Amino acid sequence: MTTQAGAAGRSNVLTLKQALEAAEAGKYAIGSFSPRYTSMIAAVLAAGQEADSPLIVQISQKELVRYGITPKAFAEEFYRQLEEQQITVPVVLHLDHTKDMAVIAEAIEAGFTSVMIDASEKPFEDNVRESKEAADYAHARGVSVEAELGMIGTTDFVETETDEELYTDPDEAAEFVRLTGVDALAVSCGTAHGVYNVKQPKVDYARLEAIRALTPVHLVLHGGSGVPADMMQQAFTLKGGGVSKVNIATDLELSLLAALGREERMTDAECRALEPDQLAAGREAVKQTVMNKMKDFVLSAGKAGRFFQ
Length: 309
Known about the structure:
Elements: H1 16-26, E1 30-33, H2 41-51, E2 55-59, H3 61-67, H4 71-84, E3 91-98, H5 101-110, E4 114-117, H6 124-139, E5 144-149, E6 153-154, H7 170-180, E7 184-187, E8 192-193, H8 205-214, E9 218-221, H9 229-235, E10 243-248, H10 250-260, H11 268-272, H12 276-296
Parallel strand pairs: 1-2, 1-10, 2-3, 3-4, 4-5, 5-7, 6-8, 7-9, 9-10
Helix pairs in contact: 2-12, 4-5, 7-8, 10-12
């Protein structure tokens, strides 16, 4: 069964599973960029086209609420920009961290080709049950599913000696994937969401290799903003696979706000109401940030032309 809305009929709109298979084979990662504002979707897609890079455009349930956006509005702008800019590079429309099946169903109906169920804060058995439910629902509609095992922290907390208690256990990961049937797994091994002001990123490569050796699915690192490029690149060039998807959100918003000369985030409506010159400046800043990430961080620039070979 094909995905809903605008995804059908566009050969360059892929599921997450399709995109990550190519990335893993090519030993690079695909950036999963959250523009957070619908007005910035255009900038993210333009960056991918100019860099000749596959890319993932995403938004999370929390961001939908925080910025005042619906899955339908986000998807409509995504597909409108694909047509308006004549985007030809491989793209995925992904729903990031989501707790509710109702939001997942809404996103799939709107045309998202990938969704993430996040029940990682719950006991293992509950996480398995909810992730399997999401996977069964999405797969029946031709959509990929990402889940999370372990707790990916935030940079708001001071690093402690107990960090590793939250890390993904390789044996649990193998069992989780077997029981749920998910297509991608977000793992906790040292990165965090947000800006690294106090806690500094680190990546447990041995843990990543152990997880990858025991699981057949593609691995995802969240919290890509602020992580040194060499540290991240080592994570997706590991023997046997490594990481194939890296989430990047905060860096995009910081570049937008800097271009506008402001520090406080906006609502989506406020962003759309910006003066044309402000909107253009913001989009250019976001575009350059995304292109830099593609070229120097995930190393996906120039890969779109060889993507389907």
